[in-house]
Amino acid sequence: MKILLQILALLWSIQSFAHSLMPTIDLGVIDKDRIRSLNNRQFISEDNFVYRPIAHPFDMQMYFFDHTEWLTLEEDLLHWSGAMGVDPRIVLTTLAINSGWSPESEATEDNIAEYKLDIKLIANRLSQLFYHGISQNLSNDDTVAYSISSSLNADTSWTQWVNFYTQWFGEPNSSESKTTAQRPNMQWPWRLGFNWIPNGPHSHTGSGSPLSSVDVSYDWPNWGGQTYSVAAAHDGRVSVFSRCQVRITHPDGWSTNYYHMDGISVQNGASVNKNDRIGTYASQRNVALCQGGSSTGPHLHFSVLFNGRFQSLQDLSLGPYRIDVGRYNYDNNCNYTWMLDSRNNSKRCFWSRIDNP
After folding, report:
1. DSSP string of 112-168, one letter each residue
2. Annotation says 67 is catalytic
3. What is the domain partition of the chain in residue ranges?
4. 69: which strand partners?
5. Which of 134-138's residues contact partners 24+ apart within 8 Å by CB, and which partners?
6. Which backbone phi and psi does 6 adopt, to 5 degrees?
7. Which one is catalytic: 202, 250, 299, 301?
């Protein structure tokens, strides 16, 4: 019987492996001497590199009101900035230096389509390099400089990058508006009283680190199947990034991302309370992936951040369950990754149905 249960758990884990949101890039070995040789590498702090839509809001119309033809890029920009956790100003500046794009350039159907793809790829590269730098214990200044400079076509573009950023967005806000709150006790991102099935912890991209995210679904249907209401895991203010992605930010600096959404029922800037309904997870693939990516079926991709940086779920409590993330993305071995139910001090495995009391 024990072997049978292990086989069933393995089959379920294969079925509910939800996605690799973006392809993994070749990170290589970090040349620390090269990074430290960059002039003015402290120009952008971590606080201005990560996307904190409440602390550092971005309104594309504010910057490009004389060039409204480029506003068609706004949803792509906000969506991938939110999903990858990189400030839109960073993404746009990198796009400009790499492609020669400028808000003053002529907008055509072809180059808009090209820049939409570039935005996705650039945001992914910046994000993966940033978290790789953190994993290699670079200082904050070196991590940001490494992420940006390694995303440019040539090292000689670093000064151009700084100049473009300053021209369009001004000097970065130097105030480090960070909080030092303890880990909050959140609920699961579905309505209280219902039982859903989470899969294993993984990074926000589906590979690498930190293991900040988990995918949840009521019953993991095929595309077109029945889907259910998504609820706010905590109190906070809403940032709507796209038709399929929302973030909720608490005043203490913690926030949660909700991706693959449909029928978002909250407004950008609105305040919500814990357990408020904010929409459903999408039943149709084209809705769930409103700006691209990949997914094996209807589910909610749920991530946790602190001060704009994706955070490991290790020791985070969702309802009565405290999480041990395991060894790697989507680890399905319950000896290494599990949820500890504080009500009876018992372990529960991922890929099993759990309550949200």
Report:
1. HHHHHHHHHHHHHHHHHHHHHHHHTT--HHHHHHHHHHTTSS-GGGHHHHHHHHHHH
2. no
3. 32-169, 182-355
4. none
5. 135/208, 135/209, 136/30, 138/30, 138/32, 138/35
6. -65, -40
7. 299
Mean pLDDT across the chain, nearest whole number? 90
pLDDT of residue 349: 97
Q: In what order do the strands lie in the sheet with 261-262?
A: 229-231, 277-281, 261-262
Catalytic, out of 19, 79, 234, 260: 260
User: In this structure, what token pair is assigned to residue 335?
Assistant: 């000896």
Tell me which range, 182-186, 205-209, 308-312, is most confidently predicted by mean pLDDT.
308-312
260 is catalytic: yes
Name residue 181's amino acid: A
Those residues with Cβ within 8 angstroms of residue 224's Cβ, 6 or more apart along the chain or in another chain: 283, 284
pLDDT digits 0-9 by tens, 207-239: 999 999 999 999 999 999 999 999 999 999 999
Q: Render pLDDT for 135-151 as a digit per residue (tens, 0 to 9).
A: 999 999 899 999 999 99
Q: Closest by alpha carbon to 91, among 103, 78, 104?
A: 78
Three-state secondary structure call for residue 58: coil
CATH class of the domain at 182-355: mainly beta
Residue 209 contacts residue 137 (beta carbons within 8 Å): no
For residue 356, give both structure tokens.
């949200």
Task: Quickly state the pLDDT bin for 23 (edges 50, 70, 90).
Answer: low
